[in-house]
Automatic annotation (TrEMBL):
Compartmental location: Membrane
KW Transport (keyword) present: no
SUPFAM superfamilies listed in its UniProt record: NfeD domain-like
InterPro entries: Membrane_assoc_protease (IPR052165), NA-bd_OB-fold (IPR012340), NfeD-like_C (IPR002810)
Domain NfeD-like C-terminal: 83-140
Higher taxonomy: Bacteria, Bacillati, Actinomycetota, Actinomycetes, Frankiales
The name this protein goes by in its record: Integral membrane protein
Membrane topology: Multi-pass membrane protein
Parts of the chain that traverse the membrane: 31-64
Amino acid sequence: MADWAIWVVVAGALLVGELLTLDLTLVMFSLAALVGAAVAVLGVDVAWQIVGFVVAAGGFGLGLRPVARRHLQRGPELRTGTEALLGEQALVVEQVSGDGGRVKIKGEVWSARSYPTTTVLEVGSQAHVLRIDGATAIVHRFEI
């Protein structure tokens, strides 16, 4: 079998291995094997084919793999709407109890209820948003 064909078979086997691991390591070796196949097509000796493979594997592993991994990894989860208010600090602008009250969260005034419902938060005190229930913020006393 021709040298280039052996390199292509090796590249294919490495790609199959990559599909099983999904680590972006074997795909770099597979690309390097294709470089070895290209060198073999040029009619160069086997020793130079191996040198081409090793240099390409190092280049792909150190240069391309980190970039590919960075693009494949997700960024931080984006919270929007009322979900973005969870855990935020709130300033009590009207006494808050289990029956109701008002707080300011991120510059907006919200109706609020305290948790636990027996807690009363006085005007000017700080609270944390536990959840948003419809248009009402459920808050609890802010403790440092």
